[in-house]
Amino acid sequence: MTLSIRPATPADLPLIAEFIRDLAAYEQLAHEVRFDEAKLGANLFGPRPYAEVVIGEIDGSPQGFALFFHNFSTFEGRPGIYLEDLFVRPEARGSGLGKALLSHLAKLGVERGCARLEWSVLDWNTPSIGFYQSLGAKLMDEWTVMRVDGDALTKLAVS
After folding, report:
1. Is there a contact between 103 and 137 (Cβ–Cβ < 8 Å)?
2. Backbone dihedral angles phi then psi of residue 58, each to the nearest 5 degrees
3. pLDDT (0 to 100) of residue 12
4. For residue 5, what pLDDT is reported?
5. From the candidates 26, 50, 82, 132, which is the catalytic residue?
6. Which of 3, 19, 41, 112 is the most buried (most CB within 10 A)?
7. Domain total for the chain?
8. Rounded to the nearest 5 degrees, what angle is found at the Cα of 19, between the Cα atoms of 136 and 51?
9. What's the CA gap between 38 and 60, in Å, rounded?
């Protein structure tokens, strides 16, 4: 079995969309998926990409992906990598592909002078939490994620 990680290309857009939908279904959030594939493609591969994607393959067959972007730590004065989505198909779990994807992002972070690699995980997702902790990740219990979206975002923008 050969694991490989490669940067996504515009030709991978349907595959990326499929992975996003599969991840949303796994997280019981399929009802929240509302992206337009063309806009997603423009935001990933257009003149100003907002995020990057890598595809994880087993024996040349795409089995997972990671979508990430840079954030910034003011305390460190350096960028970080924020992992927005990580997904490995159920039949490929346990193959080492998830670890390979995270390792790839860690290497990118080191190469790019990043201070950290971080992500969020649903609190009920104990298999993933255990997996992440086995790699040295720690829960940031003292932080709470805040979000403004939809009508609240529009309202805040005009206030």
Report:
1. no
2. -120, 120
3. 98
4. 98
5. 132
6. 19
7. 1
8. 70
9. 26
Which of 129-134's residues contact partners 24+ apart within 8 Å by CB, and which partners? 131/98
Report the alpha-carbon distance of residue 3 to residue 5 in Å, rounded.
7
Contact between 81 and 117 under an 8 Å Cβ cutoff? The reply is yes
Question: Domain containing 64 — which CATH number?
Answer: 3.40.630.30
Note the pLDDT of residue 89: 97
Q: Which residue has the tokens 């969020």?
A: 120
Domain limits for position 138: 3-157
With a cut of 70, which residues of the chain have pLDDT below it?
A: none
Instruction: Respond yes or no: is residue 132 known to be catalytic.
Output: yes
pLDDT of residue 20: 98
Residue in this structure with the two tokens 């990598």, named with its chain if needed: 81
**Neighbouring C-beta atoms of residue 17, cutoff 10 Å:** 16
